[in-house]
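Quick look at the format.
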Amino acid sequence: MSRQRWRMLACMAIVLALLAGFGLRQPSPPDEPRFVLAARAMVESGQWLLPHRGSELYAEKPPVFMWMQAASHQLLGSWPLAFLLPSLLAALATLWLTWDLGRRLWGRRVAWWALLALASCLQFGLMAKRAQIDMVLVGLTTVAMWGLLRHLLEAPNRRALWLAGFAAGLGTVTKGVGFLPLLVLLPWAAWRWRMRGVDDGHGGRGTALWWLLPAFLLGTAVWLAPLGMALLLDPDPTLQAYARELLFKQTG
């Protein structure tokens, strides 16, 4: 059997392993039922900005992940499928981006080993099958790293840079630590400082990094912009308390 066929079979096995049991179970405690109840309330009430569990305002997490679940239900019409779809798609995207970045920077052989190494991680497979924020955060973190490293190590790429900044911003309002991929700029800056005066083909990339800031702010604005407008237009103390809880007390 050819190497290409083995690789295709490995990819099929990975996808089938992630799909196994998809849509065949109900949300399980402690976190999944809370997210699904909030997403269901969004769909039923049409109130997407402020997540609720029944009549209770849910202020433990930003609503981005619950938006994804609610949007999945609007698309699929089934909660057993919809509540797991964001994690599944994030896992598949993470696998592909890992392979693609490895292929671009180090070749196909390294890319395939990186893909297999990631797919063989027990925790990765478990989180891909759980309706929790963590897998979506991993996906957004990987998107940000993919864009940053393409710009810094492959070739100047403003589109990839914009995508990286947006993903980091969206990851930050999904679960507070989404900005962490941007810290890769610190060792890159130290390396560039050590290589100053040497023409290594990486010159001029630092200037374009300023585009990360508006892209990051645009990503955070997915949630912060409608929340800010609501705070300005509605003096309701409940809304004010909700914003304070999420922005200043919850750490992700």
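Next, a different chain entirely:
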Amino acid sequence: MKRVIQLTLSIAFIATTNVAHALNCEPLDPRQQVGKKVDKSIEGSAKTLVKLIGGDISYKNTTENEVKNLYQSYPNADKLVIKGKLIYTFCTFLNDAEDLDSNEKFTKLSSFMATILDFPAEEEEENKTAKKNKAHKTVESDEFVFELKQCKGTSSAIKCSFLVTNVGSDRPLILYAKNRTYVSRIFLDSGDEILSYKSRLGSSESQNYSKATLLTGIPIKASVSFKLSGQDSNKIAAIDLRANKSSIQFRNVSLE
């Protein structure tokens, strides 16, 4: 949606502006209401930025700060409409700048538009961060997706919980604790290696391995537990799960 709005603004502006005359700002007006108070603040920001107009880094930073302030002052207002109205209002004030010719106004407005449209809304940044964090906590192996939910620690034990989703066909999954062939383990940031003594997958729980048949697309709860014997740490450097014949690893995991 954002990219469509950006493209529409850019095409409308370029198609209806003749650099030999005044800028045609009307196509840039989003024609959506955000409230009189917001409009006043947008007008104030546009006036400030027109007075400070430039192309250096400090001007770009000032522009981004003005947008941030508008977002923070009016968290319930549509961020894209704020952007559109700021561009439109900036354009109308720029038209009144007597010390700039039409070519300079066109260049300044184009640069300003690029800065504003490239600046993400706060929720977009939050979504990116959330997705990045989730990516660090999700590992796919052999068409099984393991999502780390949390690791809880006490003075005597650590339990790490997961959500496992089968993205392939219906089939069994074995989650190992410790047996002759495979062992799930953790490495503490203190340098200690701790072997799992118990695993759980759905309703199956065992000190050797747990096993369940996972249906396609249906998540199931899982966990592995570890006993401590005097080790002191508030962070796991790495988790090494053994499931079927695969090794599933998570790194830099905080203990809750």
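Helices lie at 2-16, 36-51, 57-73, 79-95, 102-118, 122-136.

See the schema section for token definitions.
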